[in-house]
Amino acid sequence: MFVRQFLAYSPFQLTNPHTWLAALKAPTVIQPAFNVLLTVPFGFYLRTYFRRSWRFTLVAAFCLSLFFELTQLSGLYGIYPRPYRLFDVDDLLLNTTGGLLGFGLTRFVLPLLPSSDYLSKQLQVRAKQVSTFRHATAFVVDWLVFFLVSSLLMTIFHLHGNLWSGISTFVALGLVIVLPELRWQRTLGLKLVRLRIGTLRAESERPTAGQLMLRTGLGYSLIWIPAVSSIVISQVSKTGFAAGIVGIILVLTLGVIGLLLALDLLIDVFRPSHELLFEKLSRTVLRAE
Q1: Side-chain-facing half-sphere of 63: CA atoms under 13 Å
Q2: Do 183 and 75 share a domain, yes or no?
Q3: Do residues 131 and 111 both lie within one domain?
Q4: Structural domain tally of the chain?
Q5: Which residues contact 189 (CB under 8 A, 6 or more apart)?
Q6: Are residues 99 and 145 in the same domain?
Q7: For an engineered disulfide with 23, which of 12, 36, 99, 191 has Cβ 3.0 to 4.6 Å away?
Q8: Residues 231/168, Cβ–Cβ less than 8 Å
């Protein structure tokens, strides 16, 4: 089909050089070209890193393209009520061709790149570094899992209101963060980036339950402080004036604590050598495995 569309709609004329550039900019060329380029790195990666054959690359590139097309056909696996794009057989051909093209180009590009031994040594050095990116990635993964568990609790048990929302937050926080840290010194997010919680004193020393609880309480304060505040606010209207004043003071105090910890995290983004407050107070640190 893309060949037929090129012949029918492209302004290209072999005898007229003025049409060549316009033809390259036409959608009939750009769309097929980018569908080929999409999987060129995939074929390159399979050959250089995994040492796979061209036959394996052919099948893998086709399966990758099929995954793209089925994702579109299924409406993102049911998120949308119908397909949001067409299942295009041409894309299967073009993406698979791109994978094979990347495989073939490896022979010409590989001599220009550093050797695999050099890259392995550099990766080993980086694996021991606890970068801000690895730290942030672990936090984002844990936050997403926490949000999913909290939402499931609210849905399964038909919970409504600020009080139950706060309670489900604490339950999800315990299941996703506290229990894994107490048991394995790492959450799912930390496991994915190959990090674990250790102490400042010795690399092999296991942190105590108190250290882990303090680290979690301060480190995830931006999650539980809003939950506590929502619970307090939901109960203030049901209490007397004095209790209401105490509740407001508590909410303001928690807000100030959360703001300080948020600023501390912001500083860490711009200064990777900065020691986070919750790590300093709990005497814990993230270590690479």
Answers
A1: 7
A2: no
A3: no
A4: 2
A5: 137, 138, 139, 140, 141, 142, 145
A6: no
A7: 12
A8: no
Whether the full predicted model's pTM is greater than 0.70, yes or no, is no
Please give the residue that has the higher pLDDT: either 165 or 171: 171
Cα–chain center distance at 269:
17
- Tell me the torsion sign for CA atoms 205, 209, 214, 216: positive
- pLDDT tens per residue across span 23-48: 778 888 888 999 999 999 999 989 98
CA torsion, points 158, 162, 165, 167, in degrees to nearest 10? Answer: -110
**Which structure tokens are listed for 167?**
């309670």
Same domain, 134 and 277: yes
Q: Are 195 and 288 in contact (CB under 8 A)?
A: yes
Per-residue pLDDT for 120 more than 70? no
Residue ending a domain, among 92, 117, 142, is 117
Please, are residues 288 and 194 in contact by the beta-carbon 8 Å criterion?
yes
Boundaries of domain holding 146? 126-288
Of 82, 117, 152, which closes a domain?
117
Could you tell me if 98 and 158 lie in one domain?
no
Identify whether the C-beta of residue 42 lies closer than 8 Å to the C-beta of residue 102. yes
Provide the token pair at 236. 């203030």
CA angle in degrees (0–180, nearest 5) for 169-211-275: 95
CA dihedral 257, 283, 275, 169 (to 10 degrees): -40
Query: Tokens standing for 133?
Result: 């990116």
Same domain, 88 and 140: no
